[in-house]
Amino acid sequence: MSPELSQKLAAAVDGMPAFPKSVQKILELTRDVNCAPKDLVQVIDKDPVVTVKVLRVVNSAYYSLPKQITSINHAVVYLGFNTIKNLALSIAAIGMLPADNAAGFDGQQYLLHSLATAGIAKQLALRVDDADPMDCFIAGLLHDFGKVVFAQFMPQEFRKALETSQSDASSLHLALRALIGVDHAVVGAMLVEKWRFPADLIETIRHQHGPDLKDTPAIACVFAANQISKKLEFGFGGNPCVEELPPTIAKRLGGTLDEVIVSMGDLTSVFEEARIFSKI
Amino acid sequence: MKVRFWGVRGSIASPGPNTVRYGGNTTCIEIRTDNNELIIIDAGTGIFPLSQTLLAELPVTANVLISHSHWDHIQGLPFFIPNFIPGNLLRLHGAFDPVSGKGVEQVMSVQLQYSYFPVREAEMKARIEYVTLAPEQSIQIGSATVTPYLMNHPVIDFGYRIEANGKSVFFTGDHEPPQNIYEPGEDGYAEYQTFVDEKADSIRRAMHGVDVLIADCSYTEQEYPAKKGWGHGTFNSSIQYAKDAGAKVLFCTHHEPTRSDDALDAVFRQVLLDNPPQAEGPDYRLAREGESYEF
Fold it and tell me: Can you give the pTM of this predicted structure?
């Protein structure tokens, strides 16, 4: 990487919003089965955005509670701690995804692709040794986050790369490497590193593709989940190119891409969940 | 009105020589109005023996009310025999689940996945309808008015009040009286307590004046501290509800799966010593599989 490119990318990553501490804390707390209700309430309460969204969901006509819920504490009494915990986790995870973009990049489709990849990666993790379902969910959710950096800070180049890969169904990774010099995996990893995510999550995003591909349980799950959601066309992250599983990944998952898809059975509920989350 | 218990066990079906007297099936309660309309609360394994008795009165319209989606309250649904016979109608009522974003239909669909059950819903011969209920919005089932109330359990749980012809029954589903999550003196304690009190009041209002209260009495006072937050009540908490409601009779249910008949009798003897029944009521009883109560 040239010094100019490296500087440009660092500036772009710096321009991204800070990762909300509250979200990180919620993820941390919900990983702990013994997490105390009041600790979670305190974390949510301190984040006005998550608070407003939780209250919006619980007060929606969808749920039609007999009375207006006015605080997180109030919501816990009415709907129970676990329900609020799960809602907050969903909202927090989605809150990490971008609201808008500037390169003709379809945010809603991207969100669906990310959520579907997250959901499938979580399921795959259940059958791969040493893969943690929650970590795979988060890695799946964020695996394409580098595209958001490109969409915001290098919209011209990114638009051109999207068009190139769209025109001949070639890999977006290759188009980006040709046009910018690096692909979204590199930038996405820089971003989550800035956010001080754990090293294995950074590694999963950085080494998810191409010559840099690493053989780890989490990468196997996220790589396969990414290809499955592309192949089944649930959402669209801008990359039309579906790739076969490399031998190392096929070995960890016990089959080729098509065989893994068949073995997962009906994925409607995963997609349905992604659709619901994408609307929160 | 007649109430009959078909399953009184909590958590998991527990057949065997130690549970013969009170029964091993999980939650299922049959309610008949004076017009003989059929309402079934919860579809634990007890719904299977109940459904066999329905073959004598085909075609049936079964109104099933689901308190919540945990296995011990839904597990018998695929084995509800009238589903397989044309002309019957199963109308399944229950809550919307804000976490999955699904209505009551999910308690059926999740169980009828082909890997877990050989008959798909499309192949069932009876008509199956789903009615997703909203808290405190009453519906009419024949002569009965049914009102769901939000209770407190790890998932959304409805308690149901059923009123018909001047008689009434309330079932709590699985329910732990809400507790303050803060310690006295901590910030937030007082505010949270106002919500807890408000919630407790709304539950008492929901039960007020019922003839029969059927309540989750999973634990003794001694057992409760280790099970706090699990979403179940105690004998004492349910007795307090029955007194506050002015109920004629309290049926204690959701018996612990590890509690033998003898142990259950012993626990209940102590409960009655601690809470001596008064002449004006309520009468305290252990729910027993197969037992009916007409009033």
Answer: 0.71
